[in-house]
Every structure is written in structure tokens, then in C-alpha cells.
């Protein structure tokens, strides 16, 4: 559904890609879009990714996504997210929202004044909640460890990782990789953040463009999607690509191009599932220990995807899609899935 709220200036789209496994769950992105069409196209792709991600992570959720067009000039942020909350409320629980690029815990607190179908709210007590990004980073590390063992026969302490984008997830990922002993090369347009990473983690700083052809073992895209296109795939010198960004492949055939260059691509919708697992835990009332158990299991799932890919001579991306679609297909029509 599209929405335009004159008073607050909130304008965007909510996409419910699938509700077979449960309510369509996926974050809300606030971003610059040239027009309604480009916002819708982005939301459609992101919602499909969420359907695959939620299925593969064994969550009782379908896939959805909301995109709000960033208003030009000054705007009342609280009013904008309250207006969005009213749209979510209208869907009566068929869509559950949370943070994504451009939105924060404070924004979700505004949404929560209008609907209860929202997560990523301020943490209360020992329960899951808050910014999902550290959980996303933890899941990426699990997937990366398995991918590095499989492709390079090495541990994270032996490798150099190029992290593109030091936002909520990318910076947290650097912290975890630094703890594991990995060497880091980073690219981030906010120079003060890049400088902090250089200082704290001994990271080398490069431009984003240079990082894509840098001599790294692993490339971790953690900025926006579409980074792996024909040009960048041809330039890569990494043996593994494993990061948090959604929709890293500019088109699906890039998975084959990566495989043809013997580059192991960890499907993004598997590697970055940690955040939605935390969101699910908050919404469904799990304990933090359960969220942690499930996020750590991203590594095991990555192993299963790589085994299926090898068995069938297909790419990890195809194997992960097949596993996700098989889970969705197993649910008899109209039957709810237990958490
Ligand atoms: P964020 O907005 O906090 O961070 C993005 C960072 O990328 C910013 O620091 C920005 O300055 C930087 N950036 C922008 N263009 C760049 C470029 N060309 N080169 C290098 N850096 C660039 O977003 P985030 O929450 O960290 O999410 C990052 C990615 O991971 C997004 O694609 C998001 O959809 C995906 N993701 C995030 C979560 C989560 O829990 N936050 C979960 C799943 C997927």
C-alpha cells in the first residue's frame, strides 16, 4: 500500500511480499528517492529479501518492508513516524515494522505511539529490543567464519577483511572482527568515523571504490545494496564476500559470475539475519539467550547452504533461496507456524 500524509509530509509504501509463515516482518527505510516508482521498486525487492531471510532463519514471519521518502528540507520527524505508525496500524498486524537504514530506536518509539506492531523499541530490562545492528553484526561474523573455513581453510584471525560502510552494523562488525584478530581495511564517507576505526582497530582506510579492488581475503559490504555488478565483480580480489548490506547482487546472475571467479558469496539474506532474529524475539517475547542461540546458528545454516550448493552444483545464493522457498512451501495454506 502507498501512503501520502499531507500534514506530516510522510510519503511512501509498505509492501507485504508474503504472509504464509506469519505476519510480513521487515524494517522501515527512510531514504532519498527520486520518485514514488523508485521507492516502490526498492521496497518490493527488499520485501522479497525479507521473505527469504525470515524463512531461512526459521522465523514465524513472512516478508515485508516499508520505505518512506525522505522529505526535502526540514520536517517534523516525530509527526512523520507517527503518521507512518497509523499506516502500520491500518494493516492490523499483517505487517510488523522495525528499524532499517535511516531510522532509529527513537523513530520506532514514535511509531509505537500509534501501533503495537513494531519492534526495535528501547530495551527494557533483560529482554531483547533496541537497535538490532549488533545482532546483525554477530550473525555476519558466524557466516563469515564458516565461509572463510570453507573457501580458504583459514580462521578469521588469519584474514584481512575489507568493510564497506561503518554505520550501525559495519562498525559493530569491525569491533567483533578486531576481537577475533582479523586485519581490517575500511571505507566510509564520514571521515571522522573512518578515522575512529583506524585508531581503535588499526584499520587501513581507503575510498569505497578502491576497497572493491583491494587485496583483501574477505569483502564485507555493509553500506547500501547493488554493490556487486558486472564491473565490481570483475575487479574483486577477495575470495569471500560476506556482509550485512541487503540486496548486494545488482542482479541475480551476479551470483554465477562470482562463482565463475571462484569467489564464495555468502547470501546476504542469510548472513544478515541476526537483526530480524532480535526483532522477532522482541515482538514474540523470547529471552535474550534464545535470540543469541538463534543468531549463533546463522553459521550452521551457512554450512548447510554451502553443502547443498556443492551437492547440487549450484551457487550458495541458489541453494539458500531453494531452502527458504522449501520452508515456505511446506506450510499448509492457512496454517500458522509455531515460533
Ligand atoms: P547505516 O545507515 O547505519 O550505515 C550505512 C553506512 O554506510 C553509513 O555509515 C554510510 O555513511 C556508509 N556509506 C554510504 N555510502 C557508502 C559508500 N559508497 N561506501 C562506503 N560507505 C558508505 O546502516 P546499517 O544499519 O549499518 O545497515 C547497513 C546495511 O546493512 C544496509 O544495507 C541495511 O539494509 C543492511 N542491514 C542492516 C541491518 C541492521 O540491523 N541494521 C540488518 C540487516 C541488513
Automatic annotation (TrEMBL):
Record Pfam families: ELFV_dehydrog, ELFV_dehydrog_N
Glutamate/phenylalanine/leucine/valine/L-tryptophan dehydrogenase C-terminal domain span: 130-334
SUPFAM superfamilies: Aminoacid dehydrogenase-like, N-terminal domain, NAD(P)-binding Rossmann-fold domains
Binding site for NAD(+): 165-170
Keywords: NAD, Nucleotide-binding, Oxidoreductase
GO BP of this protein: amino acid metabolic process
Active site (record annotation): 65
Range of residues in the leader sequence: none
Entry keyword annotation includes NAD: yes
GO molecular function: nucleotide binding; oxidoreductase activity, acting on the CH-NH2 group of donors, NAD or NADP as acceptor
Gene3D superfamilies: Leucine Dehydrogenase, chain A, domain 1, NAD(P)-binding Rossmann-like Domain
Keyword Oxidoreductase among UniProt keywords: yes
Family per record: Belongs to the Glu/Leu/Phe/Val dehydrogenases family.
Protein name (database record): Leucine dehydrogenase
Species: Sphingomonas parapaucimobilis NBRC 15100
Gene designation per UniProt: ldh
